[in-house]
């Protein structure tokens, strides 16, 4: 009995001790909470409070975020933008409004360590919540900690916690923005010369403006650099937008997404297109489903930067409003709006991520761009900023003068009237705004038009300019001749653009309706060239000649022939159009160089047909082929054009009266740079030879011949060499003397072959051999960045040294050597000396 009594007393004492300890802990916690509340009240007494998604408390130079517990674990997007730049960065092309680093973060409250952890995650992986594999997904795609903050106070009334945030905005830490590394400057901020300028709090975002300073060494000298930063922290929608998956037959920017589930045999990889969340209001859904136009619940609104010169604002706004007709195809009216901010709006700030702004940048750069801020979980475009460089007008002036001066009197002077320039600004505005809707360049759109149709006044007026898409680089109508009286010469929003907007923005109640409608929409237009989408390609390695930048029509040879006729007309008037009493010939030289550049552009458009392959996005059930060689006749005519317009040097372009007054010139950091016509002509001709006989091009010709359809005549490597050789060495074959430019063409041709062969045999030991990137095993962080260039990666070049390319190039040199030895004593002295030189060059490379 005593034994049990002792056990009872022992248990009672243990319970009493536990209760006392628990009470003591509660007392200590209540005391700590009271102290924290007291400290919170003291913070408010000493500082100022700004309410927003996070309350911001400022005490002198210290800033605190009060983060509600309800937002712990919510996804936020950090959006970093340039707010101010000094001259050296402006010259380098870095300007206000440009984004440099975005990341998704979450805040995690940790009362044990008295900290708030900031985690980042690339949200590109999904799996069903109830599937077993989701546990593995969570462990294999976990978030990373990028920052931590001590909890300095607690507000139990909210409830929320308070953290001091100076270090992530004043340059001490790089976790929230690493501006110097992300803009290529490198280094770290000098904290003594960096500071937080101000913090603004709004219902859905916080905006922090800072000035960060570093120094950059240029040739030994140290240059101070201070960059203004606008860091926005915006809460992402609690329910992400319903994504729409990419179909490569319609050109949209996209975000990759990986999907896992228990029923798979392999992970599914898909791409989400980037687009705004356009939805009908609840009360309008029934009307929308009946096909009536409705105003979206939240229209897309662009604000015009108050720094924009007033005379251009209406044209830029009209470039936005022009897209309303396209969104009507998706069932929405007044879906996109442009307006100027109210002068008395104290909250408006163009650096605020709540506003989509067309930012006007005072800069010597001639460009425009239309980036967007995207929710990576769904592809939803949250905000867009078009950067409009002031000097983009210099490019517009040059394009219009060179491409349309022959047919449009308004496009000839050193200065255009405001209305003519304004129309050009409207076109560029529409193009860049198109990018902010998610549309990529459609470089294949212009191929839909017959070249001679571009000379038709009625056709161009009906179709609206130069291509069925304003997202092409179709520029201006250089095909139309003066006698055609064509007036619709500027690109406009076309049928492809309306089709693409319909495909991307039409709203559906459910996935099944969406998939059915979109599939039928593409199928209905799949064989219509007006709806063709052609991806942008690397201009140095263009495979599909239908999708080229700045070309017009479906026949590059015919279009370029018309273009050259107009260039001759412009050159004949180059001095008259640039004349200013007492002025130098600087503007004349600039226009002269622009004419030469346009001629070279035509050359490239033509030569890309040689060895070209039409790349078609096919799906099961299509009757078309994925790879179709350019037809024989087109390739033959392309080489014929190059023979006549490049390899026979156009003396009208390089031997004329203009060079008595000025050489062609370009601007450089040291001032105007003048090019002697002979040197420039030699280099440009050489570049065409080199591009024409590139290994990749020859390999594509061989590939086409190897897999040809027996019914089709295929343009071969043999055809190419014979056609060029017979032209370039025509007078040699006849035993005649050669002119200066004919000798130049032969040297260029031979040297291209020699250089390529030497490259193949510079070093062939095993250390120099590398596996092509496309065949390497993927490594950590070997992520592919979404780009608007070279979306199709086709390998034609692996192990070129043992391909037929070496054989045919060497074989061509042997043919030339035999010809030259046979004709070495024919012609004038200069011609014979030239032959001796070529023989010596060829023998050295062959013997070596």
Automatic annotation (TrEMBL):
Matching Pfam families: DUF4953, DUF5117, DUF5118
Sorted alphabetically, the keyword list is: Hydrolase, Metalloprotease, Protease, Signal
Query: Which domain of life, per UniProt?
Result: Bacteria
* Residue ranges constituting the DUF5118 domain according to the UniProt record: 38-85
Keyword Protease tagged = yes
Which residues are in the DUF5117 domain?
A: 97-281
Database matches in InterPro entries = DUF5117 (IPR033413), DUF5118 (IPR033428), EcxA_zinc-bd (IPR032534), MetalloPept_cat_dom_sf (IPR024079), Zn_MMP-like_bac (IPR034032)
For molecular function, the Gene Ontology terms on record are: metallopeptidase activity
Residue ranges of every copy of the EcxA zinc-binding domain listed in the record: 414-733
Point out the signal peptide segment: 1-21
Which PANTHER family does this entry report, sorted A to Z? PEPTIDASE M1A AND M12B, ZINC DEPENDENT METALLOPROTEASE DOMAIN LIPOPROTEIN
Protein name, UniProt field: Zinc-dependent metalloprotease
Give the organism, scientific name.
Answer: Zhouia spongiae
